[in-house]
Amino acid sequence: MARFQQLLESCRNSKFLGLELGGMLKLTPIGRMLRNNLRDEFRRGEAGMAVYEGSSGISLGENLRFVRETFATDLPFGIVTEKRFENQTIPLGENCELRLDHGTWLSCSYFVNPTTSTEFMYKLQRQRKIWWMRYACDPGRYLISDLRQDADSKVQSVAIKARFAEEEVALEQLELIPGSVMREQMDDFQVKVGKSSRKITPNVLRIRQCAELATLEVILDAFESAGTDSVRIHRKLAPYKCGIVCVSDDATQLEELRDLAKHLSNVLRKANITTLDCSTQNGTSERSLNKQLRHLDSIAVPYTLLLRDQSLQNGLFQLRSRDTTLNETIHISDLPNYLLKIITS
Fold it and tell me: What does the domain layout of the chain look like in residue ranges?
């Protein structure tokens, strides 16, 4: 417990969030950007499965009718929704809890043929574990809980968990719900099986996670793995994908470099690469550069463009990696395609 509390303490008043007395979680603006990136990745669903946008403002049955009428899709398919909540307390391991004045529940409901639903659940829980591992600094911390089944409803459930110090934190819940239990919520929704005219009520496999808890988990994973100086959040989740800094001993050259930085920022943003232009904060010394790089590392920016005097003459600049701290030289004409390639790979 002590080690886990120390880890939580390291998150207190970080640049991503603040943990107030009593366990109240508050996301900073950059923390909300991280949460939004996580939410977008969740909403994409699993590869090879059709997932459609639903609305929490209408019933599950109405969502189902809309999807079937619009897309004429076959089983299995999923509908993803999100729902805001206020003033909730969420368990954070065995001995801690997290209080949120506002938060978001993310849910994806897959509709599955009852004859294959158990196999589908085993497949999906493995995929969800891999999903978490893919974005982690320490993939070995994730596990799947033991299967539980409610004696009355026959609902089966498992949780994807992460180990932090001596605690196991549940990140998301998977529930396989018999169609008979969900019939009323689905407004007696049924589908034809194959080429026959026989109709069935599908089972529902529901994945549910709290977006704010998921955000905290990503930060805990980064802090426990590498500390708070260089926050190694996965490049696809990082709030800012690229930073830009300038260094010059010549005041005139520095102004021209800042103009170049503004141009490159616009180029990258048009390519949907979130960019933090730090050129106006740069001084003329290596000490100032190092200070700025430490700041970018602390907010998990995976790549930084280093603009120097020669960049104005030959169009070459250095691309620094947060994780290796190594630089590679590329040409301005390589943007934005080269950066897009390494970010999405």
Answer: 1-226, 242-344
| CATH classification code of 242-344 | 3.40.50.800
User: What residues are paired with 25 via a beta bridge?
Assistant: 19
Instruction: With both helix axes pointing from N to C terminus, report the angle between 2-11 and 211-226 in degrees, rounded to the nearest 10.
Output: 100
Q: Would you say the pTM of this structure is higher than 0.85?
A: yes
User: Taking a C-beta distance cutoff of 8 angstroms, is the pair 233, 274 a contact?
Assistant: no
| Nearest in space to 240 (alpha carbons), one of 211, 266, 277 | 277
85's enclosing H/E stretch is strand 77-91
Residue 179 to residue 308: CA distance in whole angstroms? 64
With tokens 């529902």, the residue in question is 204
**What pLDDT, in 10s, does the model give residues 177-187?**
999 999 989 98
Structure tokens at 310: 């020669």
Per-residue pLDDT of 98-136, as tens digits, reads 889 999 999 999 999 999 999 999 999 999 999 999 999
Are the CB atoms for 333 and 315 separated by under 8 Å? yes
Dihedral angle of Cα 327, 331, 337, 339, to the nearest 10 degrees: 20
Question: What pLDDT, on a 0 to 100 scale, did the predictor assign at position 282?
Answer: 57
Q: At residue 325, what is the residue type? A: T
- Assign domain 1-226 to its CATH architecture: 2-Layer Sandwich (3.30)
pLDDT at 24: 83
φ, ψ of residue 290 in degrees (nearest 5): -60, -35
- Show the tokens assigned to 61: 């049955």
Nearest of 85, 88, 83 to residue 59 by alpha carbon? 83
Length of the chain measured in residues: 345
